[in-house]
What does this fold into?
Amino acid sequence: MNTLLELSGVSVSFDGFRAINNLSFQIGEPELRAIIGPNGAGKTTFMDIITGKTRPDAGRVIFGEKSVSLLKMSESQIARSGIGRKFQKPTVFEAQTVRENLAMALSNPRGPFDVLIYRKTPTGAARIEEIADEIGLSDHLTRRSGELSHGQKQWLEIGMLLAQDPRLLLVDEPAAGMTPAEREHTTDLLKRAAQTRAVVVVEHDMEFVRRLDCKVTVLHEGSVLAEGSLDHVTKNKDVIDVYLGR
Ligand SMILES: Nc1ncnc2c1ncn2[C@@H]1O[C@H](COP(=O)(O)OP(=O)(O)OP(=O)(O)O)[C@@H](O)[C@H]1O
Ligand SMILES: [Mg+2]
It folds into this structure.
């Protein structure tokens, strides 16, 4: 497995508070990784640094076989180079159908242009069916996205990200607000997505993390506190003290 993304010695402070503190992290391709840790540990900030939303005060962030520095790239350049991010709140176009949303994501990585052209091409249509199948929305392609359940909207948004075929997918707290059945479907979907790419999932729900069945990184005060299998990290005394024992 090749390393796809590497952070080393990364720090960032907000008004003198060190949200990320000399953080080092690596993920391979393909790989599924869960990130856990208490509120304020720096999990979201970690994703903000990778996507270029937040610029670190120190450290390196290196991506791909050419070892390009993400710190020299704009947010949109980072997105175009194959890093997709899913925020907590789904941001699908509610007035459009599921098919139209997927068509938009396929047609242009950055915006809803050429939609009508793209969806009429045979490869575009086939790809939409494929993604719909992958996210479990094949029977909902003609529905308006606003009518979908919260979980279905989340899957659609993941599908829209997959349409852009990212090499690295970042997902922040996908299980929040989902029913148990939706959570189960979401773990399946993320595991499948991670067969061909790197996927980082931040999640508090331990059942969800257990089902992901992957290496876990525990963040605390902006650094890695422990790393390994879920069983390994949940036996770690420091992890119990700062996170599990709350
Ligand atoms: N833009 C910002 N300006 C000031 N402080 C910030 C900013 N972003 C994050 N922080 C602070 O940095 C710390 C880490 O926040 P972050 O959102 O990364 O934590 P988290 O691990 O995602 O927490 P949660 O589990 O609650 O989502 C927090 O103390 C937060 O208040
Ligand atoms: Mg967060």
Residues 199 and 207 are 18 Å apart (CA to CA). The first strand starts at residue 2 and ends at 14.
